[in-house]
Amino acid sequence: MANYTTADIKALREQTGAGLLDVKKALDEAEGNKEKALEIIRLKGIKSLSKREGRAASAGLVLVHIADQDNGQVGIMVEVNSETDFVAKNEKFIEFADKVLAAAVESGAQSAEELLAAPAAEGTVKDMVDGVASVIGEKIVVSRIARVEAPAVTSYLHHSNPDLPPQVGVLVGTDEKAASVAHDIALHIAAYQPEYLDRDSVPADVIEKERTTLEELTRSEGKPEAALPKIVEGRMNGFFKENTLMDQAFAKDPKTTVGKIVEETGGQVVAFVRFHVGA
């Protein structure tokens, strides 16, 4: 029987993020040699990369970085995914995700595709992803990156589960005047999930589709034809109040709107981004 201990199993699991049975099999095959077992796990992972392509990677974490630049600040946010929460909270996975974020900051990548092609370690981020996946034994994905540039950028990371890394990330870009309320607005965005900044930010085709749907719904309810425009307009206002940040009731004071809170500062919100792991 191979000579290894429970502590050896635990150490190798923490080092690789691999499952209990995979670690025990590797140690058995390596006759207790931890370095050889690590190589067995890595090679097994490489062979199974193609088999994992169709599997879902809906766990993971969100990371952010804010840096000063000539005209203000830039916030970078990335989402890195794994298949299970066990891997998502693994120290090696978190260290890997930090390296992905560093590559995003250094490269100035604007999309996940650009980020995967960016330099990292001795190759690219894609090479790094494949290397980590081969050791951990799960599908690993760098799924999203976002950049927000503004005079001031504020971030918020939310832990949906205290045992896991951040699952929700928010970046809010404002001018200097509105920076004083940016943190509260970031918390609001995390909770209320607005789709758009304001009414002007909603694409024309989205508005047209919603208006057509509401007109059909209102007509099917038997409302008088003459009253349709007013009813539909009221329902469109409800759509904006639900989906645009500036029209939403403010989380800390539902009697007012986010727009009013910003207006009181004399400033403005320039942009925002919200990520929710796996969503």
From TrEMBL:
Pfam families: EF_TS. One of its GO terms (cellular component) is cytoplasm. It comes from the Bacteria. The keyword Protein biosynthesis applies. PROSITE patterns: EF_TS_1, EF_TS_2. Keywords: Cytoplasm, Elongation factor, Protein biosynthesis. One of its GO terms (molecular function) is translation elongation factor activity. Belongs to the EF-Ts family. Associates with the EF-Tu.GDP complex and induces the exchange of GDP to GTP. It remains bound to the aminoacyl-tRNA.EF-Tu.GTP complex up to the GTP hydrolysis stage on the ribosome. This is Elongation factor Ts. The gene is tsf.
